[in-house]
Amino acid sequence: MLKAGVLGAGHLGKIHLRLLQQSENYDLIGFYDASETQAKSIVEEFGYQLFNSIEELIDAVDVVDIVTPTFAHFDVAKQAIKAGKHVFIEKPITNTVAEAQQLIDLANAHHVKGQVGHVERFNPAYTAVASKIDNPMFIESHRLAEFNPRGTDVPVVLDLMIHDIDAILSVVHSEVKHISASGVSVISETPDIANARIEFENGCVANLTASRISLKNMRKSRFFQRDAYISVDFFEKKCEVVKMKDAPETPDDFAMILQNAEGVKKQIYFDNPNVPSNNAILDELDTFAEAIKNDTTPVVSLEQGKKALEVALKIIDCFAH
To answer: What InterPro entries does UniProt report for this protein, alphabetically (predicted)?
Structure first.
């Protein structure tokens, strides 16, 4: 078992502590949190071991799980990597692309693994169809959340939209050609609603909308590709795959047949996969352990975390122009 420690024990940090303790891949050693009050209340409630400093925690473990605010990611990850420890970093990877690149270079130099917490890649609705997404040419995503003061210290792009950016970059195997975007600040100092259009070199277009002042929660992505339409509901954990094939000469009575202007007939059929229930955060932590043990590339590598951040920052940059 890998010895693990958590840096940062806020809302998400507490979830990570509980899941690392449950996991069969990790031995939870303890945690560190900058807030003494917060740290003591967690020790009293759960009995986890509290370390007096970041250095002490890093020394005691094999894997450092970084769930601090984003501005602290770079410094603590750098410290952990230099000490030869593997790092799991919550999204976004760092504040800047230059910092992310520095972590990648350090991880390579010290022969350690790093994974970024883009948890939607482990959402069962997404994993059920990911292998069916093949060269999509139009993608539409909506990620709407009810207002929550937690998270408004960062733009909605880094808080919410970055999940969809990462998922899209993982299925579109082409470089980004052009980005245009607009954002509106309604209640926060940074945009609360944003829309972005990402154009790729291969002609694929992705249209993304994110809001954190919606009246209802919605997290949906739709992928359109040759002869198929794939819908993923990350919130309800449901997915739908609609495919088209050449219609048979004598279709049965219940077949759905479309005919275009040229007289070509296509049959529509549904290929909805089974969606098993899972805990996505536990899955991402466990796959990271597997990558360390088997010396393979983590599902969401530091490089992929950097690419998602790069696109997110370009979108934010559009707001200023």
So the answer is: Gfo/Idh/MocA-like_OxRdtase_N (IPR000683), Gfo/Idh/MocA_Oxidoreductases (IPR051450), GFO_IDH_MocA-like_dom (IPR055170), NAD(P)-bd_dom_sf (IPR036291)
The predicted-structure confidence for 191-231, as pLDDT tens digits, reads as follows 899 999 999 999 999 999 999 999 999 999 999 999 899 99
Query: What is the rounded distance in angstroms from the CA atom of residue 227 to the CA atom of residue 244?
Result: 5
C-alpha 36/C-alpha 39 separation (Å) is 5
* CA 223 to each of CA 44, 140, 300: distance values in angstroms, whole numbers, following the listed order: 47, 7, 20
Cα–Cα distance between 149 and 130 in angstroms, integer? 32
| Full-model pTM | 0.91
Per-residue model confidence as pLDDT tens digits over 224-256: 999 899 999 999 999 999 987 777 777 776 777
Indicate the DSSP class of residue 58.
H
Please provide the DSSP assignment of 107-131 as one string.
Answer: HHHHT--EEEE-GGGG-HHHHHHGG
User: Which residue segments constitute the domains of the chain, with CATH numbers given?
Assistant: 2-112 (3.40.50.720), 121-279+310-319 (3.30.360.10)
Q: Encode burial over 50-84: b for 16+ CB neighbours within 10 A, e otherwise.
A: bbeebeebbebbbbbbbbbebebbbebbbbbbeee
